[in-house]
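Example: Peptidase A1 domain-containing protein.
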Amino acid sequence: MAHAGATIKRTGGWFTYGGLDSDNCGDIIAWEPLSKVAFWEFKLRGVKVGDYENEDVVDAISDTGTSLISAPVAVVENVCITFITFMQILN
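Written out as structure tokens, the predicted fold is:
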């Protein structure tokens, strides 16, 4: 996926559910099976935001009816700290 937000001085991002975003995604499509169908739970095999990177495999939940993405507290806290720092740099 292209990382154009910071280069064009724009914040934000998106997820594409139920479709294919050929403008912003590469040629390789990988489907992640749900580990708990009732909660849309899947194995998150790493996350990278700015300088923060965590390669642990953890359970995460993506609620497609809301903007909720749930993951372990330590991962979410570090991602939030990175976003806050990034926003302070932009402003």
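The radius of gyration is 14 Å.
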